[in-house]
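Moderator note: this is an archived Q&A kept for reference. The question asked for a predicted structure of one protein chain; the sequence and the answer are reproduced below.
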Amino acid sequence: MAHLLHIDSSIQGEASVSRRLSARAAAAWRSAHPDGTVAYRDLGADPLPHLDAAGGLADRVPPERHTPEQAAAWARTLEVVNEVKAADTVLLGLPLYNFGPPSSVKTWVDHLIAPGLSIDPETYAGLLGGREFVVLASRGGGYGEGTPRAGWDHAQQWLPHGVALTGLEPRFITAELTLAAVRPAMADLVPLAEESLAAAERAIDELWVPARV
C-alpha cells in the first residue's frame, strides 16, 4: 500500500503559498492512490527541538550510555527517519525566509542525518534513496538569472546538499514573486506572479498522471 509523508513548514497559516501548493500536491497524490495512507507533520506549528549540547551528539554514543537528554534527542531522530522510511513519497512545503530555509526545516534535516539509520556507517551510502521527494517551494521575490538578487535563494540551493548523504533527491516545484499582490512596489510583477503560481499548480497536477502511450 502506497504511503505519503506530507510536511509543511510555513508559519503563515492560510496565507502561506507553500501550504497551498503542498495541500494541492497531497490531494493529487490521494486521488492517484485512493487506497494509500498519509502521515502529516507540521514543522511550522510544532517544530522539532534544535540539536543542542545536551543531547545533540546522541548518534556518537551507544544508546545504553545515553543521558536522558541524549535519549530524548535520539528518539526524535528515530521518529523522523522512520517517518521517511515508511513513505513512498515525501512532500515538503518550503518557503523562503530571509533568503534561506525556515530553521525548522534545517532542524528536520539535522535529525534526518543519522549514521546507522539514514546513512550506512561503513560505506556512507544513503539509506533513504529510491523514494519520491517533491518540494513545493515558494519565494516572495524573484531570484532567477538576470534578476538583481539572482542566486539569493539559499533554501533551494541548500536542500539537495543538506539531504545528499541520505540518498534523498528533491524535485522542486516553485512559485515565486508571491509578495507581489501585497507589496505596492511589486504591483507591476503581479502578472508574472500569477503566471508562476499557475505553472506550479500545473506541474503539481501532472505529477501522478498516468503516462500516455
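Archived answer notes: The mean pLDDT is 95.
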